[in-house]
Design goal:
283 residues
Length: 283
């Protein structure tokens, strides 16, 4: 059975929880957050000043802003752009929110953060893994706020067919049980929140579409998030299908990379952002 590393765990096995604790403990320690509020909870945003358009980096499931601690300063130095990272609800220094995690809620948090920070003009979204769902809902609600996006081995609607979603739900069952057997911590609660209602949530997500007016570059990792050839092929096919749906999209293969492309191949991510930036028309 396929183990979907970007489904519940975003990496292999339950031992990932220990790694997530380490990540959370070091959340953007070198930079004080700017705290914003949305729907009764507070979220931590980190801003490196620079030129516009601002580049927003959104990490995958189980990770916080510290996931970008190597790439963000390199990107700022290379582009001179304003760089924004943040901790989604339940991660890093942001408040926990009870109940199942929903990408629509995360998109609302992101919009509130950009508004309260006074971010001017359209932004470039860089979304890894689970954050692809946040980006999709965000751009669907606010297409005029997004200049373009780089989707890094991201969860895209095209992948979540009925059959593939059912396989992921089945593969997650043992991981959910293992997490439920562990002491309740901030990290385990967040992972369980992401797994809640996974099937119906992703069948609904499968019906979403990316606005054709917003350009995007999809980066697919060489390894994909899967251990099984059939699922890896379906993942790559979904990325290619997404790109083929509009002429202002491009597919890039991150060679010699695991699913963690921002860590393994930051050069590919930075190059894609520069490529997208060079093609954007001023508005």
């Amino acid at each position: 059975m396929a183990e979907y590393r970007t489904g519940l765990m975003r990496c292999v096995g339950v031992i990932a929880v220990a790694a997530l604790m380490t990540l959370s403990a070091g959340a953007a320690a070198a930079q004080a957050p700017q705290m914003i509020s949305n729907n009764g909870h507070r979220l931590a945003f980190y801003v490196t000043p620079g030129r516009l358009p601002a580049i927003v980096l959104d990490a995958g499931g189980g990770n916080d802003a510290s996931y970008w601690k190597q790439l963000a300063p390199a990107l700022a130095a290379r582009t001179g752009s304003e760089i924004i990272t943040y901790d989604r609800a339940g991660a890093g220094r942001s408040d926990e929110v009870p109940g199942p995690w929903k990408a629509q809620d995360a998109a609302s948090d992101l919009e509130a953060g950009l508004t309260q920070l006074g971010v001017a003009g359209r932004v470039i979204l860089v979304a890894h893994s689970l954050a692809g769902e946040v980006a999709t809902y965000f751009v669907d609600d606010h297409p005029d706020q997004v200049a373009g996006a780089v989707l890094v081995d991201a969860d895209l609607p095209e992948f979540f067919t009925e059959s593939e979603t059912a396989k992921i739900v089945a593969a997650n069952e043992s991981q959910i049980a293992a997490l439920q057997a562990q002491p309740s911590t901030r990290e385990t609660r967040q992972l369980l929140a992401e797994a809640a209602d996974y099937g119906p949530v992703h069948l609904a997500y499968h019906k979403m579409s990316w606005p054709q007016t917003v350009p995007a570059i999809a980066i697919v990792s060489a390894a994909t998030p899967f251990d099984t050839p059939d699922d890896a092929r379906l993942w790559k096919d979904a990325q290619a299908d997404f790109v083929g749906e509009a002429p202002n999209r491009r597919l890039i293969l991150a060679e010699n990379s695991s699913h963690d492309v921002p860590l393994d191949r930051p050069d590919v991510v930075i190059g894609a952002i520069e490529q997208l930036s060079s093609c954007l028309s001023p508005r």
